[in-house]
Structure of 5,6-dimethylbenzimidazole synthase:
Amino acid sequence: MPNTSALAQAAPFSESERDAVYKAIYTRRDVRDQFLPEPLPNEVLLRLLDAAHHAPSVGFVQPWNFIVIRSSADRERIWKAFSGANEEAAAMFSGERQSTYQSLKLEGIRKAPVNICVTCDRTRGGDVVLGRTHNKSMDLYSTVCAIQNLWLAARAEGVGMGWVSIFHDADLKRILAIPDRIEIVGYLCLGYVDQLYERPELEVKGWNQRALLDDLIFDGKWQGDP
């Protein structure tokens, strides 16, 4: 029998509370270069990390770690690693697509006052983890949930966040002294912003547009490509 003393009421939020949750979801943006130089107070950063730490995790193993990078010298080293990978990425596109890619301003690493590397320790919890017995990627998915928690909390705090994915993991591991067994899941740039795009930047700049939800919902079984 469950310990009923450990249970809490599951009443719905008030209308204003519910609206605030949806506002954070719908106005969250990936910030690339709009960061202000204003420092991010430690108490705000700790609230964001605590929100991340309260994400669901498979087997409750909490596989994440958060490497907080504030040093401008360290961020410059990381930016150089990013810059090399970004040139490689640009070469993968051609024509107008390449020009659009190169026009995107990706300066968050140097402009944001705080960078965070989010990692996943895939050995945490031992060889057999509840909920990961048949899907070995569940610890990675759990860590992504932590990043989403942080992102939504940042939006509620008026803090912008950008997720940088254009790296060679080996470069980041060398710079940040990350052991080989540790998986890098996300590199995040955080800082205050005074403006956000009303729609995702890549939609505004014509890279892609949001798919229609109706095209992505299948009833009962797979119904072909949307």
